[in-house]
Design brief:
420 residues, Arc Repressor Mutant, subunit A, Rossmann fold, nine-stranded mixed beta sheet, 33% helix, globular, DNA-binding, AB_hydrolase_1
Amino acid sequence: MVYRFANCRLDPARHLLLRDGEPVHVEPQVFTLLQVLAERAGQLITKEELVETVWRGLAISDATISARISAARKAIGDTGQAQAILKTVHGCGFRLVAPVSTDQAGGPDKAQSRPATAKAQRHVLRFAQSADGSRIAHAQSGEGPPLLRLGHWLSNVELDWHCPVWQPLLTALGARHRLVRYDQRGTGLSSRELHAATGAGITPFVEDLLCVADANGLTRFPIFAASQAVPVAIGFAAQFPERVSGLILYGGYSKGRSLRPPAPGQMDEATVLSLIRAGWGQPRSAFMTAFSSLFMPDATPEQLASFITMQVETIAPDKAAELRQIVDRFDVADLLGTVRAPTLVFHALDDAIHPVSEGRQLACGIPGARFVPLRSRNHVPLPQEPAWHLMLDEIDGFLSELEAGGPKPAPELDSPASEG
């Protein structure tokens, strides 16, 4: 069954939403929410019914529900102020008030063949100059409040949109935000030289972040940082607290691999570096497959092959080894207590790259931070696992709170992290 209302066409069989004949990207839970409302158009649906249907009875915060309702309104061209299509009945629930007609699925519609992420993929590529003269490639896409996603291991602002590993995350982050992202120095389309960063700690990487923020006119903004980008985000937030409205940290650490005791079964630095130098640049080598599988053991063959290709095309073998030596020596442990931005910390419970204890240490060290453990083995988040939807729900709720004026910055005195 296909549902038509206002200028929208909702096709559950194809998981497709069209507005004015154009595909609109919709996250799975937002799509389910719209489907439930369309099926019962004109009827009041309580929050409890939505939670039972959309979230299968899980404990969900009001902020998460509000974020999904807001995303649904944006997808169908409505707003919280107008409520011409989706109305909130305060204290009671929600109602789709626009007239709804139905027809059989599978009817002709030329727009169905267009990629659902076409609009999101229209990005503008630019270059900024960091403090030491390094050229940093950056791009922005989407509309709405700004969100800055830091460069990490490994990215390419042009190739990311075609990578089945990174594209779903970029689409989700940019669904209702102006997403700004960049390639860290040494990788992607940024300057490949790393000599200025050797022995300099996080400072050059913080300066890269600063130049990208300034080039995009960002004065105060939330940050999404993963893995080695996490200490860079912490360093920036500590140095420029007035610029950071919130931190979303995934799979990160405060002390690099070379500065902490090795986890059980973890290879030492010398072994990793020798393997990189010997096997990097050969997409079909056993090393590249094994190395990439550590990051995401539950990846599909397509995701794994794409991730391998991305790494090979993004950085040369000697630079890969050099960059690993640099990021494995990042140390921001002494800065954690100085961070005042509201902070959300994610970490996979069985992460083979950085153990979950690193995520807990981040959350315990940053005043007021909230820790969300994910039931996953993947250092790189994958859309086919249940943890993906939990992560996106939490991110949506967190960003919605920031945009509404909360959560509040941490007090001057440290407070313990809470675990969600």
